[in-house]
Amino acid sequence: MTIRYFNIFMNHLEKMQFEVAAASFEEQAGAEEGRPEVYDCNRALLVTGGSGLLHMDDRSFSMDAGTFSILLAGKAHWIEPSPGETLSYWWCHFRASYADRALYQAIGLPEHVRIPDPSEAIAMFARIRGCLFSQQPSARLRIKTSFMELIGIYIDYFVADSGRRASLSPEFEKLEIVLSYVEEHLADTITVEHLAGLIFLHPNYFIVFFKGLMGCSPIQYVNQRRLEVARTLLADPACNVSDAAARIGMKIYYFSRMFKAYTGLTPSRYKKLVLGLGAGGAKDEAGGAESPKKEGTET
């Protein structure tokens, strides 16, 4: 998975809200008479033992211990254990605020990943089931936290499987051209007009196009990436604050203000805390009276 594709994926995932409706553990020793099941909720399945097939529409794929699948609501499917075997698996049904199925499919997420050691994921499923029946005030929060851990595991193994590069739709292919350019030119002046020209769109339409797919404006995305890169740079003892600002194309005064708004800390204070050098005595690095740039078409 490329960094551009990952950014597309994460920008959408970070805006999603999840609600787990049910969860349980099952053992199945025979096919359910080949009858497809359709659920109103999305479904997560984690196989813990045995082997079999998951049939969907006109295709099937094998399942064994460590197979983790996420199926969209309304997708007909049925499970067929291998002859003479018992297939054991955890499942949970969940709803997501992400209602645009076409956009979800356009991102190209796989329906399953394989986890060599599923013990952590099994623990999350078990915790979710336990919390569903709990009367503790924190139960709903713990369910959400555990489910997000499951999604995190899914993402980690999806990203690690470099042989399964997702196939993007034409719209996302265009977007990846833009994101690739941004990634390679963070130290340069980047304008909306130039980004729009990369994919032959009018700037006004490009802003709408970009925000519809990424959930933020082009300028917001560029600044977010710059600050994310700066945060990593500041964790390097060999990179000082001025170097970090220069490598992301920002004047130091503007960089200090934006970084503090982003992290709640000035760059020098953040660097000291990350490197374990103590928190006292850090001054703001705004070395000059230059005013920050206004939000606009250039960054």
What does this structure look like?
The chain folds into 2 domains: 3-160, Sandwich (Jelly Rolls); 170-274, Homeodomain-like (Arc Repressor Mutant, subunit A). Strands 1-7-2-5-8 form a 5-stranded antiparallel β-sheet, with helices on one face. Strands 4-3-6 form a 3-stranded antiparallel β-sheet, with no helix packed on it. It is 44% helix and 18% strand. Strand 3 (51-56) and strand 4 (59-64) form a beta hairpin. It is built from 11 helices and 8 strands. It has 299 residues and is α+β, with helices and mostly antiparallel strands. InterPro entries: AraC-bd, Homeodomain-like_sf, HTH-like, HTH_AraC, HTH_AraC-typ_CS. This is AraC family transcriptional regulator.
Oligomer: single chain
- Give the helix level as a range of percent: 40-55%
CATH architectural name of the largest domain: Sandwich
Estimated radius of gyration? 23 Å
CATH class of the largest domain: Mainly Beta
Overall number of strands: 8
| Fraction of residues in β-strands | 15-25%
Strand order within the widest beta sheet:
1-7-2-5-8
The pLDDT mean sits at 83
**Biggest sheet overview:** 5 strands, antiparallel
Which regions are unreliable across 5 or more consecutive residues at pLDDT < 50?
Answer: 279-297
Structural class: alpha+beta
CATH topology of the largest domain: Jelly Rolls
How would you sum up the global shape?
globular
Distance between the termini: 27 Å
Count of structural domains: 2
User: Superfamily at the CATH H level of the largest domain?
Assistant: Regulatory protein AraC
**Helical region count?**
11
